[in-house]
């Protein structure tokens, strides 16, 4: 009893040898909500959440098929899924640390036994075969959470790796929709430019006719010719942009160019509107998988500190052997050859050149770095959400202004049409009004594209429909 008390007193004294660590704090959630409230409180909606398959609201089967194929076959996603699988295997490896190790060992040897040692005649001086066979068992106790902390650390890293897949899916789907929509808007602009070119050619023909009659000068013809060449140049530039968009869409989707070349032009984007989750300022971070990744990594780093601390405490292990030893193979498994063994050991390195202390310092530094990375991710997320919402509102305002401009241009075109039909002017003024209107329609297509991109940026900033389920990660 006295010896047992002394052992426990010694262990208690040894616990004081663990150095203290200084861990910095991550951003407080209440401070984050307070920061967001000013900018985001006015953005409310009847829609409580963003659907994870938000792109299906476009009701575009071609787009749905493109995204499904990308999500199922894209090499970048397959790489992340393989990494997650490897992370799960590491969890299982660490879980094995909590279980006893059982193994069968066998040994056959032949040797001469010394005549001048402990071996009596006839063993001393003779050559003999020795047969050993046994079932061994080893088990390390986990009093100080050394192995359990490694298991929890690997679980958290595995969950973070799983969320990298979610982050990649959001990046992929938002990029695909933006590229797909932009490709369609550019194709529509190209069609408008063809109409523009046709009208300029008509105007150019009229000016040539008037010039022959002495009613137009060469300067007007030259201006018309220059306008025609500029439109053709714009058409070529637009075709180059379209090819670049196709290339980018192929790469992001993980598809071959021939697949993208077969896409048909659609116009399914005009009526789509993103819904802002109600009271977004209260839980904006729960919609961001990248923030959840940082939380899991932070929990993992904290477990490594626990593991580093546990190395300062004594370790107790048990070992046993159910074995048989014999000079004769025929009698190896006889009862008389039975040689069981059981033992226990306690170990505590006292002088290790500060290896354990430096290891603890490293793990603490890694934790503090992870806190800073978490804080930086929060800053990035908040700025992306606020900027996306403001940009979203500004683009809506630009579309309203453009609609007013178009209405004025349409009225001017109607007036010029009536004047032309009454014979009060030649057709050039009417064509000029039509060209001016087409220019504004092309501008509106660009603005509509920008508006849609702003909506998709907002969807991405809101986590693409992701909702954090919770972080109860302390169990084995």
What can you tell me about this protein's structure?
This protein is α+β, with helices and mostly antiparallel strands. The chain has eleven helices and four strands, in the order H-H-H-H-E-E-H-H-H-H-H-E-E-H-H. Strands 1-2-3-4 form a four-stranded antiparallel sheet, with no helix packed on it. Helix 2 packs parallel to helix 10 (355-421), helix 5 (146-212) runs antiparallel to helix 6 and helix 5 runs antiparallel to helix 9 (289-310). It is elongated, with a radius of gyration of 38 Å.
Briefly summarize what is shown.
The protein has 11 helices and 4 strands; from the N terminus they run ααααββαααααββαα.
Q: Which shape, going by the Cα principal axes?
A: elongated
Q: How helical, in percent, are the residues? A: 55-70%
N- to C-terminal distance: 35 Å
List low-confidence stretches: 471-476
Described by strand count, sense and barrel closure, the largest sheet is: 4 strands, antiparallel
Query: Which structural class should the secondary elements be placed in?
Result: alpha+beta
Strand order of the largest sheet: 1-2-3-4
Radius of gyration: 38 Å
Strand element count:
4
SSE arrangement, N to C: HHHHEEHHHHHEEHH
Content of β-strand? 5-15%
How many individual helices? 11
List the SSEs and their pairings.
Layout: H1 2-15, H2 29-40, H3 61-73, H4 75-95, E1 101-112, E2 127-140, H5 146-212, H6 218-253, H7 257-261, H8 280-283, H9 289-310, E3 315-326, E4 341-347, H10 355-421, H11 427-461
Antiparallel strand pairs: 1-2, 2-3, 3-4
List keywords for this structure.
disordered C terminus; 476 residues; alpha+beta; 11 helices
């Amino acid at each position: 009893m006295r010896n047992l008390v002394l052992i426990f007193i010694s262990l208690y004294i040894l616990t004081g040898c663990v150095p203290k660590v200084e861990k910095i704090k991550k951003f407080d959630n209440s401070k984050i909500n307070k920061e967001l409230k000013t900018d985001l409180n006015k953005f409310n909606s009847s829609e409580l959440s963003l659907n994870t398959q938000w792109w299906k609201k476009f009701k575009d089967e071609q787009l749905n098929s493109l995204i499904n194929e990308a999500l199922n076959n894209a090499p970048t996603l397959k790489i992340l899924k393989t990494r997650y699988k490897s992370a799960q295997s590491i969890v299982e490896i660490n879980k094995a640390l909590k279980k006893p190790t059982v193994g069968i060992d066998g040994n056959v040897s032949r040797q001469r036994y010394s005549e001048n040692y402990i071996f009596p005649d006839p063993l001393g001086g003779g050559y003999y075969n020795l047969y050993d066979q046994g079932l061994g068992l080893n088990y390390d106790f986990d009093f100080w959470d050394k192995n359990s902390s490694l298991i929890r650390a690997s679980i958290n890293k595995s969950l973070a790796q799983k969320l990298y897949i979610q982050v990649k899916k959001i990046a992929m789907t938002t990029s695909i929709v933006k590229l797909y929509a932009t490709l369609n808007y550019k194709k529509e602009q190209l069609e408008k430019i063809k109409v523009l070119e046709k009208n300029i050619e008509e105007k150019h023909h009229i000016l040539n006719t008037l010039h022959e009659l002495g009613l137009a000068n060469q300067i007007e013809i030259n201006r018309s010719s220059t306008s025609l060449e500029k439109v053709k140049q714009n058409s070529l530039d637009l075709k180059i942009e379209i090819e670049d968009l196709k290339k980018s869409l192929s790469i992001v989707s993980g598809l071959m160019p021939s697949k993208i070349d077969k896409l048909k032009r659609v116009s399914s984007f005009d009526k789509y509107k993103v819904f802002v989750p109600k009271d977004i300022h209260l839980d904006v971070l729960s919609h961001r998988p990248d923030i959840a990744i940082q939380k899991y990594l932070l929990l993992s780093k904290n477990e490594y500190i626990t593991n580093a601390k546990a190395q300062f405490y004594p370790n107790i292990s048990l070992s046993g052997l159910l074995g048989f030893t014999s000079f004769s193979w025929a009698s190896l498994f006889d009862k008389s050859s039975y040689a069981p063994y059981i033992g226990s050991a306690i170990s505590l390195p006292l002088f290790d050149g500060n290896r354990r202390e430096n290891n603890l310092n490293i793990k603490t530094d890694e934790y503090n770095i992870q806190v800073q990375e978490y804080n930086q991710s929060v800053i990035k997320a908040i700025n992306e959400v606020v900027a996306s919402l403001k940009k979203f509102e500004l683009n809506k305002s630009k579309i309203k202004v453009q609609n007013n401009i178009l209405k004025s241009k349409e009225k001017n075109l109607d007036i010029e049409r009536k004047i032309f039909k009454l014979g009060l002017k030649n057709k050039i003024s009417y064509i000029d009004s039509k060209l001016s209107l087409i220019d504004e329609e092309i501008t509106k297509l660009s603005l509509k594209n920008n508006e849609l991109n702003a909506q998709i940026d907002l969807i991405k900033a809101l986590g693409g429909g992701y909702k954090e389920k919770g972080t109860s990660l302390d169990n084995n």
